[in-house]
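Here is the promised in-class demo. Please do not try to memorize the tokens; focus on the logic of going from shape to residues.
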């Protein structure tokens, strides 16, 4: 709200001096509404090379739309890998107000909540390349519930369930010899115990492959792009959820060895 006035003169019947002159001026006031129940607007992973998404799930400039805070399996993300992150846009709360709980509490998957103001950066942490089999086994399906502690009460902000956890092998170059890649996968997966395996295409992406010459071929796209591009979708696979993953271990699908132990 802006209050402004033109130049003028104030006069009184008594006193000395009896008049006072003032110049034109304005003042801006910001009205902050009282929010009794804080909430989350969007869950935003990396938007780089953002493609269209499933209706009512994805906003191309803001990220995933909150589906239902009381139904965690309906919300983003359902997949995870160590050190990826997303931002939560908060209303009626700041980052310092946010806490979380994990179920089960013994899970080896955790959150690091940082950021400033009303934007909370939520980073996933858990077993990564080099973990022992015992450490890798702590990655179990985990539900996270985030709360805002404001106005003397605890309000649920957001919830999600990680049903699939991936471990990425770094420094793997793309090779056209699929036999070499498959052989490496078997050796790498065995390091983490019998519960780990190489993922299927559908667990990585909802796009099609094989459009470019000499590329691998697969189908299964949702069809909004009709070819190589992921459609942003909750539960649509690692890359359909996260896009270009912002972590030091992930570069692109052809340079990855990915495995995971848990599935709902």
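The designed amino acids, position by position:
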């Amino acid at each position: 709200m802006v209050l402004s006035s033109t130049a003028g003169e104030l006069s009184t019947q008594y006193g000395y001096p009896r008049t006072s002159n003032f110049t034109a001026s304005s003042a801006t006031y910001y009205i902050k509404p009282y929010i009794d129940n804080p909430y989350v607007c969007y869950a935003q992973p990396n938007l780089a090379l953002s493609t269209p998404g499933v209706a009512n799930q994805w906003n191309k400039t803001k990220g995933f739309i909150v589906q239902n805070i009381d139904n965690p399996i309906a919300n983003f993300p359902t997949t995870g890998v160590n050190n990826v992150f997303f931002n939560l846009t908060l209303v009626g709360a700041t980052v310092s107000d946010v806490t979380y709980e994990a179920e089960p509490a013994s899970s080896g998957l955790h959150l690091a909540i940082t950021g400033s103001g009303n934007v909370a950066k939520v980073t996933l942490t858990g077993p990564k390349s080099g973990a022992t089999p015992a450490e890798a086994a702590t990655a179990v399906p985990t539900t996270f519930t985030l709360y805002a502690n404001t106005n003397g009460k605890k309000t649920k902000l957001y919830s999600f369930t990680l049903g699939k956890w991936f471990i990425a092998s770094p420094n793997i170059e793309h090779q056209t010899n699929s036999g070499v890649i498959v052989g490496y996968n078997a050796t790498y997966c065995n390091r983490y115990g019998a519960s780990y395996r190489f993922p299927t295409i559908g667990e990585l992406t909802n796009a099609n492959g094989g459009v470019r010459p000499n590329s691998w071929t697969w189908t299964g796209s949702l069809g909004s792009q009709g070819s190589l591009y992921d459609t942003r979708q909750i539960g649509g696979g690692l890359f359909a959820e996260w896009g270009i993953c912002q972590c030091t271990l992930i570069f692109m699908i052809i340079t990855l060895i990915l495995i995971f132990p848990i599935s709902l």
